[in-house]
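Format notes (please read before filing issues)

Several people have asked whether sequences and structure tokens are stored in separate files. They are not. Every record keeps both together, in the order shown below: the sequence lines, then the token lines. Line labels are part of the format and must not be stripped during preprocessing.
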Amino acid sequence: MQLIGSIITLLGSIFIFLGAFGVLRMPDVYNRMQAGTKATTLGSMLTLLGVGLAMPDWLGRCIILILFILLTNPISSHALARAAHNTGVKLTDRSIRDNLKEDNEEEGNA
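Then the structure lines:
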């Protein structure tokens, strides 16, 4: 079980690294936030699962932490992106469409 836990922990670490790399490579705040949130959510969950499998005494605590991350990380990322949009942080020039801006304009016209 120790070997399986170590492999899963390594996979989690790879996802966290790729999330950090995505934060560096993405062109604007919204893309960076998306890359960081998705990769770190999965990476953190895999890392904790690997630790829980490698050390069975900690498995219950790790599962509670996994559930906490699964619930809070996407919600906090959404709140931060929404706040950035509402304060006027611009999208990259390569963005084709701003659905939130279009929705807000439609609500204002209705």
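For reference, the curators noted about this record: The chain has a mean pLDDT of 88. The chain has one domain: 2-109.
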